[in-house]
Amino acid sequence: MLELSSRGALFGALATARRVDLAAYTLESGRLVNALGDAARRGADVHVSLEAGPYARDSIRAAALRERNEATAARLRAHGVRVRLAHAPEAPLHMKAAVVDATLFLDERNWPAAGSDTIVRTTARAAVAAARATIAGRAASAPALALRKDRALADEARLIAGTRSDRIDCESESFSASSVSRALLGAARHGRHVRLLVASRELHGAGGRRERSAVRTLRHAGVDVRASRSDEKFCVTGESAWLGSANATAGAAHTVDWGARTRRPELVAVLERRFEANWAAADRLALPAP
Question: How far apart are CA 248 and CA 217, in angstroms?
Fold first, then answer.
């Protein structure tokens, strides 16, 4: 269903779009915000959904993220964009998706202006319709595309548990005990070579106790773990891969997120290369005592 895409393809689509529905957890002013404003001024029907209360362990950072989204919303509205600041504590908006006319673009990071991320797209009607409804705040589902965190992570765990490959490479921004960690633990205990990348700031931050506990359990079972400067979210098993915006943590099961599995050789190869690059740039792990 999914095929590899790019920022260039997204901006090209926005330049001629008649209808745009975009979701982000947080969104900074920059090229994407400018492109959305340009589309609205040109006459396109543009809708943007942002999380009203982005989470951060640090209250100062949480306030800064909230103010960022409020400022972005004000700027977009000034250009005729319809903006929704989503506020549903039981189901926060964490999905990064853009429906541009009949094409759905998905990003596993937060539409960054630079750096590593993977953008994919699909024109499958069910996925496009479900994503558009989800961005608007209406629960929806589609075959082969999870649009809720617990379902996305269940797909990732099934990929890990079901693979015949001896190599499993996973990366997550945040990581704690979850269906994914249990699947990785089982794979390691069955003799699979498992590597895991977790964002450094999550592991070493003041609130990273759960991350460190989960990582210690996996390391004890033989999983190789490194601390990464990246915050990508994917898993590759050789013949197939999982990609999504959902972090491998147990909390907030109803979070609005996305996740999908793929066997497309070109997409699996891209994720394999990205993991190797992130692994090579990551730090070997030295965890403080519990």
Answer: 15
